[in-house]
Design a protein that fits this description.
The structure holds 2 protein chains of 2 kinds.
Chain A: H1 2-24, H2 41-75, H3 78-93, H4 97-107, H5 112-119, H6 133-158, H7 161-169, H8 174-202, H9 206-212, H10 219-227, H11 235-268
Chain B: H1 3-32, H2 48-55, H3 57-90, H4 95-108, H5 111-122, H6 133-159, H7 161-170, H8 175-204, H9 207-212, H10 220-228, H11 232-252
Helix pairs in contact in B: 1-11, 2-11, 3-4, 3-6, 3-8, 3-10, 4-6, 6-8, 7-8, 8-11, 10-11
Chain lengths: 269, 264
Protein backbone atom coordinates (compact mmCIF):
# COMPACT_ATOMS: atom_id res chain seq x y z
CA UNK A 1 0.00 0.00 0.00
CA UNK A 2 2.81 2.38 0.82
CA UNK A 3 4.42 2.38 -2.65
CA UNK A 4 1.02 3.00 -4.21
CA UNK A 5 0.28 5.95 -1.91
CA UNK A 6 3.71 7.42 -2.50
CA UNK A 7 3.37 7.08 -6.27
CA UNK A 8 -0.05 8.72 -6.24
CA UNK A 9 1.17 11.52 -4.01
CA UNK A 10 4.15 12.32 -6.23
CA UNK A 11 2.62 11.85 -9.69
CA UNK A 12 -1.08 12.58 -9.16
CA UNK A 13 -1.77 14.72 -6.10
CA UNK A 14 1.30 16.92 -6.41
CA UNK A 15 0.67 17.87 -10.07
CA UNK A 16 -2.96 18.76 -9.33
CA UNK A 17 -1.88 20.80 -6.30
CA UNK A 18 0.71 22.56 -8.43
CA UNK A 19 -1.99 23.54 -10.92
CA UNK A 20 -4.06 24.92 -8.06
CA UNK A 21 -1.06 26.76 -6.62
CA UNK A 22 -0.11 28.27 -10.01
CA UNK A 23 -3.68 29.44 -10.50
CA UNK A 24 -3.61 31.57 -7.32
CA UNK A 25 0.12 32.39 -7.20
CA UNK A 26 0.80 36.12 -7.27
CA UNK A 27 4.07 37.94 -6.78
CA UNK A 28 4.65 37.12 -3.15
CA UNK A 29 0.96 36.91 -2.37
CA UNK A 30 -2.14 34.96 -3.22
CA UNK A 31 -4.34 36.35 -5.98
CA UNK A 32 -7.42 35.39 -7.89
CA UNK A 33 -6.64 37.71 -10.76
CA UNK A 34 -5.53 34.83 -13.02
CA UNK A 35 -9.12 33.68 -13.10
CA UNK A 36 -10.00 36.99 -14.76
CA UNK A 37 -8.12 35.73 -17.84
CA UNK A 38 -11.19 33.63 -18.46
CA UNK A 39 -13.06 36.79 -19.38
CA UNK A 40 -10.69 37.61 -22.23
CA UNK A 41 -12.21 36.97 -25.65
CA UNK A 42 -9.78 34.16 -26.56
CA UNK A 43 -10.41 32.11 -23.42
CA UNK A 44 -14.09 32.95 -23.14
CA UNK A 45 -14.63 31.84 -26.73
CA UNK A 46 -12.66 28.64 -26.00
CA UNK A 47 -14.71 27.92 -22.89
CA UNK A 48 -18.01 28.53 -24.65
CA UNK A 49 -16.95 26.53 -27.68
CA UNK A 50 -15.72 23.61 -25.56
CA UNK A 51 -19.00 23.50 -23.63
CA UNK A 52 -21.08 23.81 -26.80
CA UNK A 53 -19.11 21.11 -28.64
CA UNK A 54 -19.43 18.74 -25.69
CA UNK A 55 -23.16 19.39 -25.15
CA UNK A 56 -23.88 19.02 -28.86
CA UNK A 57 -21.91 15.82 -29.42
CA UNK A 58 -23.20 14.28 -26.18
CA UNK A 59 -26.77 15.11 -27.18
CA UNK A 60 -26.39 13.83 -30.73
CA UNK A 61 -24.52 10.77 -29.42
CA UNK A 62 -27.53 10.01 -27.25
CA UNK A 63 -30.06 10.83 -29.98
CA UNK A 64 -28.49 8.41 -32.48
CA UNK A 65 -27.04 5.96 -29.98
CA UNK A 66 -30.16 5.20 -27.96
CA UNK A 67 -32.33 3.84 -30.81
CA UNK A 68 -29.31 1.94 -32.14
CA UNK A 69 -28.80 0.37 -28.71
CA UNK A 70 -32.49 -0.57 -28.53
CA UNK A 71 -32.23 -2.21 -31.95
CA UNK A 72 -29.14 -4.13 -30.80
CA UNK A 73 -30.91 -5.32 -27.67
CA UNK A 74 -34.27 -6.29 -29.14
CA UNK A 75 -33.90 -7.02 -32.83
CA UNK A 76 -30.59 -8.82 -33.24
CA UNK A 77 -29.47 -12.35 -32.47
CA UNK A 78 -26.96 -12.89 -29.69
CA UNK A 79 -24.12 -13.37 -32.15
CA UNK A 80 -24.97 -10.30 -34.23
CA UNK A 81 -25.26 -8.29 -31.04
CA UNK A 82 -21.80 -9.34 -29.82
CA UNK A 83 -20.17 -8.51 -33.15
CA UNK A 84 -21.85 -5.10 -33.26
CA UNK A 85 -20.90 -4.27 -29.69
CA UNK A 86 -17.26 -5.19 -30.30
CA UNK A 87 -17.30 -2.93 -33.35
CA UNK A 88 -18.92 -0.13 -31.35
CA UNK A 89 -16.37 -0.52 -28.56
CA UNK A 90 -13.55 -0.38 -31.12
CA UNK A 91 -14.95 2.85 -32.59
CA UNK A 92 -15.41 4.29 -29.10
CA UNK A 93 -11.70 3.62 -28.47
CA UNK A 94 -10.60 4.83 -31.90
CA UNK A 95 -9.92 8.54 -31.50
CA UNK A 96 -7.11 10.99 -32.00
CA UNK A 97 -4.70 11.21 -34.92
CA UNK A 98 -5.76 8.07 -36.86
CA UNK A 99 -9.41 9.17 -36.69
CA UNK A 100 -8.47 12.54 -38.16
CA UNK A 101 -6.58 10.74 -40.96
CA UNK A 102 -9.61 8.56 -41.75
CA UNK A 103 -11.96 11.54 -42.02
CA UNK A 104 -9.51 13.55 -44.09
CA UNK A 105 -9.42 10.72 -46.64
CA UNK A 106 -13.22 10.59 -46.65
CA UNK A 107 -14.23 14.24 -46.39
CA UNK A 108 -11.08 16.34 -46.69
CA UNK A 109 -10.50 19.00 -49.35
CA UNK A 110 -9.90 16.24 -51.89
CA UNK A 111 -11.55 13.43 -49.99
CA UNK A 112 -13.51 10.57 -51.52
CA UNK A 113 -17.00 11.87 -50.66
CA UNK A 114 -16.00 15.45 -51.42
CA UNK A 115 -14.98 14.42 -54.95
CA UNK A 116 -17.99 12.20 -55.39
CA UNK A 117 -20.53 14.84 -54.36
CA UNK A 118 -19.06 18.12 -55.44
CA UNK A 119 -16.60 17.55 -58.25
CA UNK A 120 -18.98 15.39 -60.23
CA UNK A 121 -21.55 18.10 -60.41
CA UNK A 122 -24.03 17.01 -57.77
CA UNK A 123 -23.32 20.34 -56.18
CA UNK A 124 -21.65 23.29 -57.75
CA UNK A 125 -19.79 24.66 -54.76
CA UNK A 126 -18.41 23.08 -51.61
CA UNK A 127 -20.70 24.13 -48.75
CA UNK A 128 -18.68 22.41 -46.09
CA UNK A 129 -15.13 22.14 -44.89
CA UNK A 130 -13.93 19.38 -42.59
CA UNK A 131 -11.44 21.68 -40.87
CA UNK A 132 -14.05 23.55 -38.87
CA UNK A 133 -16.34 23.25 -35.88
CA UNK A 134 -18.83 21.26 -37.98
CA UNK A 135 -16.08 18.88 -39.08
CA UNK A 136 -15.03 18.43 -35.48
CA UNK A 137 -18.61 17.52 -34.53
CA UNK A 138 -18.61 14.82 -37.23
CA UNK A 139 -15.33 13.39 -35.90
CA UNK A 140 -16.46 13.42 -32.28
CA UNK A 141 -19.70 11.65 -33.21
CA UNK A 142 -17.57 8.82 -34.57
CA UNK A 143 -16.66 7.84 -31.02
CA UNK A 144 -19.56 9.45 -29.11
CA UNK A 145 -22.42 7.47 -30.72
CA UNK A 146 -20.77 4.04 -30.20
CA UNK A 147 -19.63 5.08 -26.71
CA UNK A 148 -23.23 5.83 -25.78
CA UNK A 149 -24.34 2.47 -27.15
CA UNK A 150 -21.71 0.56 -25.18
CA UNK A 151 -22.39 2.49 -21.97
CA UNK A 152 -26.20 2.21 -22.09
CA UNK A 153 -26.18 -1.52 -22.92
CA UNK A 154 -25.90 -2.81 -19.32
CA UNK A 155 -28.83 -0.56 -18.33
CA UNK A 156 -30.98 -1.91 -21.17
CA UNK A 157 -30.11 -5.43 -20.13
CA UNK A 158 -31.21 -4.49 -16.60
CA UNK A 159 -34.77 -3.74 -17.71
CA UNK A 160 -36.75 -6.80 -16.69
CA UNK A 161 -39.06 -8.74 -18.91
CA UNK A 162 -41.53 -9.11 -16.03
CA UNK A 163 -42.22 -5.37 -16.01
CA UNK A 164 -43.21 -5.43 -19.62
CA UNK A 165 -45.34 -8.52 -19.05
CA UNK A 166 -47.00 -6.87 -16.06
CA UNK A 167 -47.92 -3.84 -18.19
CA UNK A 168 -49.41 -5.98 -20.93
CA UNK A 169 -51.29 -8.17 -18.42
CA UNK A 170 -52.86 -5.02 -17.03
CA UNK A 171 -53.91 -4.05 -20.53
CA UNK A 172 -51.19 -1.55 -21.43
CA UNK A 173 -49.43 -1.43 -24.79
CA UNK A 174 -45.77 -0.94 -25.67
CA UNK A 175 -46.19 2.83 -25.73
CA UNK A 176 -47.61 2.89 -22.21
CA UNK A 177 -44.79 0.62 -21.03
CA UNK A 178 -42.13 3.03 -22.26
CA UNK A 179 -43.85 6.16 -20.93
CA UNK A 180 -44.72 4.78 -17.51
CA UNK A 181 -41.97 2.21 -16.87
CA UNK A 182 -39.14 2.09 -19.41
CA UNK A 183 -38.11 5.74 -19.59
CA UNK A 184 -38.64 6.53 -15.89
CA UNK A 185 -36.41 3.59 -14.90
CA UNK A 186 -33.84 4.33 -17.60
CA UNK A 187 -33.71 8.09 -17.17
CA UNK A 188 -30.96 8.16 -14.51
CA UNK A 189 -28.86 5.83 -16.70
CA UNK A 190 -29.51 7.97 -19.78
CA UNK A 191 -28.50 11.13 -17.94
CA UNK A 192 -25.46 9.33 -16.49
CA UNK A 193 -24.28 8.26 -19.95
CA UNK A 194 -24.90 11.78 -21.23
CA UNK A 195 -22.57 13.08 -18.51
CA UNK A 196 -19.85 10.57 -19.43
CA UNK A 197 -20.12 11.55 -23.09
CA UNK A 198 -19.94 15.21 -22.16
CA UNK A 199 -16.83 14.65 -20.05
CA UNK A 200 -15.27 12.49 -22.75
CA UNK A 201 -15.54 15.31 -25.25
CA UNK A 202 -14.80 18.16 -22.83
CA UNK A 203 -11.30 16.85 -22.06
CA UNK A 204 -10.48 15.51 -25.52
CA UNK A 205 -7.39 17.00 -27.12
CA UNK A 206 -5.78 14.70 -29.68
CA UNK A 207 -8.64 14.54 -32.20
CA UNK A 208 -9.13 18.31 -32.37
CA UNK A 209 -5.40 19.01 -32.39
CA UNK A 210 -4.81 16.58 -35.25
CA UNK A 211 -7.70 17.93 -37.32
CA UNK A 212 -7.77 21.69 -36.84
CA UNK A 213 -4.42 22.37 -35.18
CA UNK A 214 -3.14 24.38 -32.25
CA UNK A 215 -4.93 27.59 -33.17
CA UNK A 216 -8.42 26.25 -32.60
CA UNK A 217 -10.40 27.71 -29.73
CA UNK A 218 -11.08 24.84 -27.37
CA UNK A 219 -10.01 24.80 -23.74
CA UNK A 220 -7.79 21.67 -23.86
CA UNK A 221 -5.95 23.06 -26.90
CA UNK A 222 -5.46 26.51 -25.38
CA UNK A 223 -4.13 24.89 -22.19
CA UNK A 224 -1.80 22.66 -24.20
CA UNK A 225 -0.20 25.77 -25.72
CA UNK A 226 0.87 26.86 -22.27
CA UNK A 227 2.24 23.37 -21.54
CA UNK A 228 4.34 23.50 -24.68
CA UNK A 229 5.76 26.80 -23.42
CA UNK A 230 4.51 28.92 -26.33
CA UNK A 231 5.25 32.61 -26.15
CA UNK A 232 2.30 34.63 -24.90
CA UNK A 233 0.76 31.72 -23.04
CA UNK A 234 0.89 32.23 -19.33
CA UNK A 235 1.05 29.10 -17.14
CA UNK A 236 -0.93 30.92 -14.47
CA UNK A 237 -3.81 31.62 -16.83
CA UNK A 238 -3.64 28.05 -18.14
CA UNK A 239 -3.75 26.76 -14.56
CA UNK A 240 -6.78 28.91 -13.78
CA UNK A 241 -8.54 27.45 -16.84
CA UNK A 242 -7.46 23.97 -15.79
CA UNK A 243 -8.95 24.49 -12.32
CA UNK A 244 -12.24 25.59 -13.86
CA UNK A 245 -12.25 22.43 -15.99
CA UNK A 246 -11.41 20.17 -13.07
CA UNK A 247 -14.09 21.80 -10.90
CA UNK A 248 -16.69 21.37 -13.62
CA UNK A 249 -15.76 17.74 -14.19
CA UNK A 250 -15.78 17.00 -10.45
CA UNK A 251 -19.32 18.37 -10.11
CA UNK A 252 -20.45 16.32 -13.10
CA UNK A 253 -18.85 13.11 -11.84
CA UNK A 254 -20.29 13.43 -8.33
CA UNK A 255 -23.68 13.91 -9.93
CA UNK A 256 -22.98 10.87 -12.10
CA UNK A 257 -22.16 8.70 -9.07
CA UNK A 258 -25.48 9.68 -7.44
CA UNK A 259 -27.36 8.84 -10.64
CA UNK A 260 -25.66 5.45 -10.79
CA UNK A 261 -26.74 4.64 -7.27
CA UNK A 262 -30.31 5.59 -8.06
CA UNK A 263 -30.36 3.37 -11.14
CA UNK A 264 -28.74 0.47 -9.25
CA UNK A 265 -31.54 0.73 -6.73
CA UNK A 266 -34.11 0.10 -9.42
CA UNK A 267 -32.54 -2.79 -11.22
CA UNK A 268 -31.31 -4.66 -8.15
CA UNK A 269 -34.33 -3.97 -5.90
CA UNK B 1 -43.24 -2.62 -30.86
CA UNK B 2 -44.97 -1.25 -33.90
CA UNK B 3 -43.50 -1.59 -37.35
CA UNK B 4 -42.76 2.14 -37.60
CA UNK B 5 -40.79 2.15 -34.36
CA UNK B 6 -38.85 -0.93 -35.38
CA UNK B 7 -37.97 0.70 -38.67
CA UNK B 8 -36.58 3.76 -36.87
CA UNK B 9 -34.49 1.57 -34.56
CA UNK B 10 -33.09 -0.48 -37.43
CA UNK B 11 -32.29 2.67 -39.40
CA UNK B 12 -30.46 4.12 -36.38
CA UNK B 13 -28.41 0.94 -36.05
CA UNK B 14 -27.58 0.86 -39.76
CA UNK B 15 -26.66 4.54 -39.61
CA UNK B 16 -24.23 3.87 -36.76
CA UNK B 17 -22.63 0.88 -38.47
CA UNK B 18 -22.17 2.86 -41.70
CA UNK B 19 -20.79 5.80 -39.73
CA UNK B 20 -18.23 3.48 -38.14
CA UNK B 21 -17.29 1.49 -41.21
CA UNK B 22 -17.32 4.12 -43.95
CA UNK B 23 -14.25 6.13 -42.83
CA UNK B 24 -12.42 2.89 -42.10
CA UNK B 25 -13.28 1.57 -45.55
CA UNK B 26 -12.05 4.76 -47.23
CA UNK B 27 -8.87 4.58 -45.16
CA UNK B 28 -8.19 0.97 -46.18
CA UNK B 29 -8.88 1.70 -49.85
CA UNK B 30 -6.61 4.74 -49.77
CA UNK B 31 -3.82 2.73 -48.19
CA UNK B 32 -3.77 0.20 -51.08
CA UNK B 33 -4.45 2.64 -53.94
CA UNK B 34 -1.76 3.48 -56.48
CA UNK B 35 -3.37 6.83 -57.07
CA UNK B 36 -6.73 8.11 -55.84
CA UNK B 37 -7.10 11.83 -56.21
CA UNK B 38 -8.52 12.33 -59.72
CA UNK B 39 -10.99 9.49 -60.14
CA UNK B 40 -13.95 8.32 -58.10
CA UNK B 41 -12.43 4.91 -57.47
CA UNK B 42 -8.69 4.18 -57.10
CA UNK B 43 -6.77 3.92 -60.39
CA UNK B 44 -5.00 0.75 -59.28
CA UNK B 45 -4.09 -1.30 -56.27
CA UNK B 46 -0.74 -1.99 -54.62
CA UNK B 47 0.67 -2.95 -51.26
CA UNK B 48 3.81 -0.88 -51.73
CA UNK B 49 2.81 1.68 -49.08
CA UNK B 50 2.73 -1.13 -46.53
CA UNK B 51 6.16 -2.46 -47.48
CA UNK B 52 7.56 1.09 -47.46
CA UNK B 53 6.24 1.65 -43.94
CA UNK B 54 7.52 -1.66 -42.63
CA UNK B 55 10.96 -0.87 -44.07
CA UNK B 56 10.99 2.55 -42.40
CA UNK B 57 13.42 2.57 -39.48
CA UNK B 58 11.57 5.40 -37.75
CA UNK B 59 8.37 3.35 -37.65
CA UNK B 60 10.14 0.54 -35.79
CA UNK B 61 11.74 3.01 -33.41
CA UNK B 62 8.34 4.57 -32.64
CA UNK B 63 6.79 1.12 -32.19
CA UNK B 64 9.66 0.18 -29.87
CA UNK B 65 9.10 3.34 -27.80
CA UNK B 66 5.37 2.73 -27.52
CA UNK B 67 5.90 -0.91 -26.58
CA UNK B 68 8.39 0.02 -23.86
CA UNK B 69 5.91 2.58 -22.52
CA UNK B 70 3.04 0.09 -22.54
CA UNK B 71 4.96 -2.75 -20.90
CA UNK B 72 6.35 -0.49 -18.18
CA UNK B 73 2.93 1.02 -17.49
CA UNK B 74 1.40 -2.47 -17.31
CA UNK B 75 4.08 -3.84 -14.97
CA UNK B 76 4.17 -0.77 -12.72
CA UNK B 77 0.41 -0.43 -12.41
CA UNK B 78 0.03 -4.12 -11.58
CA UNK B 79 2.85 -4.03 -9.01
CA UNK B 80 1.42 -0.94 -7.38
CA UNK B 81 -2.28 -1.72 -7.41
CA UNK B 82 -2.53 -5.45 -6.68
CA UNK B 83 -0.68 -5.43 -3.32
CA UNK B 84 -2.33 -2.17 -2.24
CA UNK B 85 -5.78 -3.49 -3.04
CA UNK B 86 -5.14 -6.82 -1.28
CA UNK B 87 -3.71 -5.22 1.86
CA UNK B 88 -6.65 -2.85 2.02
CA UNK B 89 -9.11 -5.68 1.59
CA UNK B 90 -7.44 -7.84 4.25
CA UNK B 91 -6.58 -5.32 6.92
CA UNK B 92 -8.07 -1.89 6.37
CA UNK B 93 -11.35 -1.99 4.44
CA UNK B 94 -11.79 1.75 4.97
CA UNK B 95 -8.63 2.56 3.03
CA UNK B 96 -10.10 0.88 -0.04
CA UNK B 97 -12.20 3.96 -0.72
CA UNK B 98 -9.04 6.06 -1.02
CA UNK B 99 -7.38 3.58 -3.33
CA UNK B 100 -10.49 3.59 -5.48
CA UNK B 101 -10.58 7.39 -5.54
CA UNK B 102 -6.91 7.67 -6.57
CA UNK B 103 -7.18 4.88 -9.12
CA UNK B 104 -10.18 6.42 -10.82
CA UNK B 105 -8.97 10.04 -10.61
CA UNK B 106 -7.45 10.00 -14.13
CA UNK B 107 -11.01 9.63 -15.46
CA UNK B 108 -11.79 13.06 -14.03
CA UNK B 109 -8.54 14.77 -15.01
CA UNK B 110 -8.12 15.09 -18.79
CA UNK B 111 -4.61 14.19 -19.89
CA UNK B 112 -3.83 17.72 -21.10
CA UNK B 113 -4.37 19.02 -17.57
CA UNK B 114 -2.30 16.17 -16.24
CA UNK B 115 0.52 17.13 -18.59
CA UNK B 116 0.23 20.73 -17.43
CA UNK B 117 0.48 19.65 -13.79
CA UNK B 118 3.50 17.43 -14.39
CA UNK B 119 5.32 20.07 -16.43
CA UNK B 120 4.65 22.79 -13.86
CA UNK B 121 5.79 20.48 -11.05
CA UNK B 122 8.88 18.90 -12.54
CA UNK B 123 10.21 21.36 -15.12
CA UNK B 124 11.70 23.64 -12.47
CA UNK B 125 13.21 20.89 -10.34
CA UNK B 126 16.99 20.43 -10.42
CA UNK B 127 16.63 16.71 -11.13
CA UNK B 128 16.55 16.02 -14.88
CA UNK B 129 13.15 14.33 -15.04
CA UNK B 130 11.14 16.72 -17.18
CA UNK B 131 11.21 16.04 -20.91
CA UNK B 132 12.52 12.50 -20.45
CA UNK B 133 10.82 9.22 -21.37
CA UNK B 134 11.01 8.31 -17.68
CA UNK B 135 8.48 10.96 -16.65
CA UNK B 136 6.30 10.02 -19.63
CA UNK B 137 6.34 6.40 -18.49
CA UNK B 138 5.33 7.35 -14.98
CA UNK B 139 2.56 9.60 -16.30
CA UNK B 140 1.25 6.78 -18.50
CA UNK B 141 1.26 4.52 -15.46
CA UNK B 142 -1.11 6.90 -13.67
CA UNK B 143 -3.38 6.94 -16.75
CA UNK B 144 -3.29 3.15 -16.66
CA UNK B 145 -4.46 2.96 -13.02
CA UNK B 146 -8.23 3.02 -13.68
CA UNK B 147 -7.94 0.23 -16.27
CA UNK B 148 -5.85 -2.05 -14.04
CA UNK B 149 -7.89 -1.17 -10.95
CA UNK B 150 -11.25 -2.01 -12.51
CA UNK B 151 -10.12 -5.30 -14.03
CA UNK B 152 -8.31 -6.50 -10.90
CA UNK B 153 -10.93 -5.31 -8.43
CA UNK B 154 -13.66 -6.95 -10.47
CA UNK B 155 -11.84 -10.27 -10.54
CA UNK B 156 -10.87 -10.09 -6.88
CA UNK B 157 -14.48 -9.47 -5.94
CA UNK B 158 -16.00 -12.22 -8.08
CA UNK B 159 -13.73 -14.98 -6.82
CA UNK B 160 -13.45 -13.77 -3.22
CA UNK B 161 -9.67 -13.64 -3.26
CA UNK B 162 -9.39 -11.94 0.14
CA UNK B 163 -10.94 -14.97 1.84
CA UNK B 164 -8.60 -17.34 -0.03
CA UNK B 165 -5.51 -15.41 1.02
CA UNK B 166 -6.76 -15.22 4.58
CA UNK B 167 -7.28 -18.99 4.69
CA UNK B 168 -3.87 -19.66 3.20
CA UNK B 169 -2.19 -17.46 5.82
CA UNK B 170 -4.21 -19.02 8.65
CA UNK B 171 -3.08 -22.45 7.45
CA UNK B 172 0.52 -21.30 7.80
CA UNK B 173 1.50 -20.46 4.24
CA UNK B 174 4.25 -17.89 3.82
CA UNK B 175 3.86 -14.76 1.75
CA UNK B 176 5.95 -15.87 -1.29
CA UNK B 177 3.95 -19.10 -1.45
CA UNK B 178 0.67 -17.21 -1.16
CA UNK B 179 1.75 -14.83 -3.90
CA UNK B 180 2.78 -17.49 -6.41
CA UNK B 181 0.26 -20.22 -5.63
CA UNK B 182 -2.85 -18.28 -4.57
CA UNK B 183 -2.83 -14.65 -5.67
CA UNK B 184 -1.23 -14.73 -9.11
CA UNK B 185 -2.95 -17.83 -10.56
CA UNK B 186 -6.38 -16.64 -9.43
CA UNK B 187 -5.94 -13.01 -10.38
CA UNK B 188 -4.14 -13.70 -13.65
CA UNK B 189 -7.10 -13.28 -16.00
CA UNK B 190 -7.99 -9.96 -14.36
CA UNK B 191 -4.41 -8.71 -14.74
CA UNK B 192 -4.32 -9.83 -18.39
CA UNK B 193 -7.63 -8.06 -19.05
CA UNK B 194 -6.30 -4.84 -17.55
CA UNK B 195 -3.03 -5.22 -19.46
CA UNK B 196 -4.82 -5.48 -22.81
CA UNK B 197 -6.79 -2.32 -22.07
CA UNK B 198 -3.58 -0.52 -21.07
CA UNK B 199 -1.77 -1.74 -24.19
CA UNK B 200 -4.56 -0.39 -26.36
CA UNK B 201 -4.57 2.92 -24.45
CA UNK B 202 -0.81 3.49 -24.51
CA UNK B 203 -0.41 2.55 -28.19
CA UNK B 204 -2.80 5.33 -29.18
CA UNK B 205 -1.99 7.85 -26.43
CA UNK B 206 -1.12 11.20 -27.98
CA UNK B 207 -1.64 14.10 -25.55
CA UNK B 208 1.00 13.22 -22.95
CA UNK B 209 3.53 11.94 -25.49
CA UNK B 210 3.22 15.03 -27.68
CA UNK B 211 3.26 17.57 -24.86
CA UNK B 212 5.87 15.99 -22.60
CA UNK B 213 8.57 14.68 -24.96
CA UNK B 214 7.28 15.25 -28.50
CA UNK B 215 9.62 14.53 -31.39
CA UNK B 216 12.70 13.88 -29.29
CA UNK B 217 11.42 10.43 -28.32
CA UNK B 218 8.55 9.75 -30.74
CA UNK B 219 5.86 7.23 -29.88
CA UNK B 220 3.57 5.69 -32.50
CA UNK B 221 0.94 8.43 -32.45
CA UNK B 222 3.50 11.24 -32.43
CA UNK B 223 5.20 9.55 -35.39
CA UNK B 224 1.83 9.25 -37.14
CA UNK B 225 1.18 12.94 -36.54
CA UNK B 226 4.48 13.90 -38.16
CA UNK B 227 3.88 11.52 -41.10
CA UNK B 228 0.33 12.81 -41.60
CA UNK B 229 1.59 16.23 -42.68
CA UNK B 230 3.99 14.85 -45.30
CA UNK B 231 2.60 11.63 -46.71
CA UNK B 232 -1.14 10.94 -46.61
CA UNK B 233 -0.81 7.38 -47.81
CA UNK B 234 1.78 6.40 -45.20
CA UNK B 235 -0.52 7.96 -42.60
CA UNK B 236 -3.44 5.90 -43.90
CA UNK B 237 -1.40 2.70 -43.65
CA UNK B 238 -0.50 3.51 -40.04
CA UNK B 239 -4.13 4.35 -39.26
CA UNK B 240 -5.29 1.04 -40.70
CA UNK B 241 -2.72 -0.74 -38.52
CA UNK B 242 -3.92 1.29 -35.53
CA UNK B 243 -7.59 0.46 -36.14
CA UNK B 244 -6.80 -3.23 -36.57
CA UNK B 245 -4.86 -3.23 -33.31
CA UNK B 246 -7.65 -1.44 -31.44
CA UNK B 247 -10.18 -3.89 -32.86
CA UNK B 248 -8.08 -6.96 -31.98
CA UNK B 249 -7.40 -5.79 -28.43
CA UNK B 250 -11.03 -4.77 -27.91
CA UNK B 251 -12.34 -8.13 -29.01
CA UNK B 252 -9.84 -9.93 -26.79
CA UNK B 253 -11.11 -8.04 -23.76
CA UNK B 254 -14.51 -9.14 -22.47
CA UNK B 255 -17.21 -7.97 -24.86
CA UNK B 256 -17.88 -4.26 -24.59
CA UNK B 257 -14.71 -3.19 -22.81
CA UNK B 258 -14.43 0.53 -23.44
CA UNK B 259 -11.17 1.98 -22.30
CA UNK B 260 -12.49 5.23 -21.03
CA UNK B 261 -14.93 4.73 -18.17
CA UNK B 262 -14.65 0.95 -18.86
CA UNK B 263 -17.93 0.30 -17.13
CA UNK B 264 -18.78 -2.97 -18.80
Amino acid sequence: MFPFSLFCAVFLVLPVMTIFWRSIQGEGTITFSHYLFLLRPLYLKSLVQSIFLSLLTAFLGMLFGFPAALALQHLLSHRQKNISITLAATAANFAGVPLAVAFMILLGLNGFLTRLLFHRGFMSSVPFTLYSFTGLVLLYLYFQIPLFVVLIMPALEGLRKEWREAVSTLGGNGYLYWVKVGFPVLSPALLGCFILLYANSFGAYATAFALVGAKFRLLPIQISLAVAGNVGYDPHAASAMAMVMIAGLLVLFSFYIRLRKRFALWVSG
Amino acid sequence: MGFGVELVLVLALIFMLIYILFPVGAMILFSVATRWDRTVWPEGYTLSAYSTLFRDREFWIALYHSTVLALTAIALSAFLIVPALLTAELTLPRVKKFIEAFSLAPFVIPSVLFALGLVETYASLPIPLYGTPVLLTLANTVLAFPLMYRSVENKMHTIGLAKMVESAITLGARMPFVTYRVILPNLWSGIVNGSLLILSMVLSEFALANLMVGGSWPTLSVYLYSVMRVDGQAASVLSVVSFTFTWLLTSLVTVGGVRRYGLS
